[in-house]
Protein 1
Amino acid sequence: MSVVVLRTAEEVRKTVEEWRCSRRIIGFVPTMGALHPGHLSLVSKAFEHADTVIVSIFVNPAQFGPDEDFESYPRTLRDDIDKLEKVGANAVFYPEKDIIYPEGFSTSVHVSNLTDTLCGKYRPGHFDGVSTVCAILFGIVKPDIAVFGRKDAQQLAVIKRMVLDLRFDIRIVGADIYRERDGLAMSSRNRYLRPVERTQAAALFRGLSRAAELAGKGERDTGRLCEVARQIIAKSPLAVVQYLEIVDQDTMKPVERLDGPGLLAVAVRFGKTRLIDNIVLDPGASYKED
Ligand code: AMP
């Protein structure tokens, strides 16, 4: 069956209602398009929990800063639909801006505390844009489950908190980071990298992996773990680290000593391109033995 393209909230509501009448569990994957295998892995993940999956494609202006890449963000709808068709998605919601933000729109959802750190520090207003658009999309689609990638770990934590606080009856499922062969996390923005930057960008995962390995062997000093990752990334001369921190996975607050799993999160600039990545550090066996 081919994927249905829905352009308005009414079309989505009607379609989802029909699915619901036939007792189907509805999974939802919000995206900004320019789909890559990482996005498609979210659709597969959604099918593990649902029998019907709707994907939204909306380049959300509210989550871009004034100096960010909203205008130049890749828009590849035809290709995206082909890819979604191949993975068996049932529908794609592709709204115009005024469907999401009609005239007079005046609401903003702000999740506090866990938006103060990491990307929140460097992208003011970004998470308000994300939580607001997700609240709107959840209200239109009313899915049973929604899948978000762990690549955007802070976003996942923010959405989980919002769903809890606003009592959305939606289960939020996290999906593992999908990587290129050399470890670079897939991202729609990787296409901006010049070949030399693309080669050097693999250092992010090398740095994160080394820290994870040391943590697994029992290193709990987060300062030292960060230093190890930072030094490996610094071997790529074009990499400019914006932040590199170990935080609690739920609260996004910095952790000084690794007495349980922690999230090592990094943002690095290569020229105009900003990449983020993360890895869970788990003190593992040596931690449990103590
Ligand atoms: P975006 O289109 O960048 O807004 O991403 C849409 C969803 O795909 C978000 O939940 C992202 O976390 C997720 N995502 C993007 N890249 C990856 C990846 N490499 N692996 C897993 N999930 C991803």
Protein 2
Amino acid sequence: MRKYVIMGVQGSGKGTQSAMLAADFDLVHIAVGDIFRWNVQNHTKLGALVRRIMAAGELVSDDLVEGVVSERLQRHDWNYGFIIDGFPRNERQAEFFLESYDIDGVIHLELPDSEVRRRVMARRLCANCGLDYNLIDSSPHDEGKCDACGGKLVQREDDTEEALAVRLRDYHGKTNPVLDIFRRKEYVVSIDARPDKEQVRDAIRCALDLPPSDR
Ligand code: AMP
């Protein structure tokens, strides 16, 4: 059983790296932001509660987030483990998480703020299946169209200059202290997120003592 947390500033590649690790080691990828986005898209009650907060780049209340995470983990469909992305984002969430789960490692993707803006503004998401694109180095075949399902590629509602400024401020102010909690427990491996995704993937595996990729 492998249980990981992945942390990093917006655009550092958390989603991409989590998906690769999950696919290769049969882990369940739990992305809290994706769960909220699904709820917004599908007009659920939860979606209505979080939509504006998310669009402004602000953090959803701890109670709501903890509810979503607990419910997801209680499904126990993670026979080989999980990788959780986008949580915990502040000290309270970290304590809540550590009370219930022991973890094997925290992957910290490091990216300078100057690079964050460039990446986030180039990010596109399939409105239909949620697949992530980056117009810098993973453009779709046909402009504006998802390679997997043909859905329309859109910008995330919170990938604007204003919302990004709020999210970066929160990241540095609230999420960095979470890293300190995890560092004290010696869980954290810090990885340079600037190289291409395969190099970052290899660095993660090496740091976590996982077998190298055969792809
Ligand atoms: P992400 O896709 O991880 O950037 O998350 C998108 C948005 O979902 C964030 O800007 C928050 O509004 C909300 N969100 C996701 N995870 C959390 C969390 N752990 N705590 C509070 N809000 C969250």
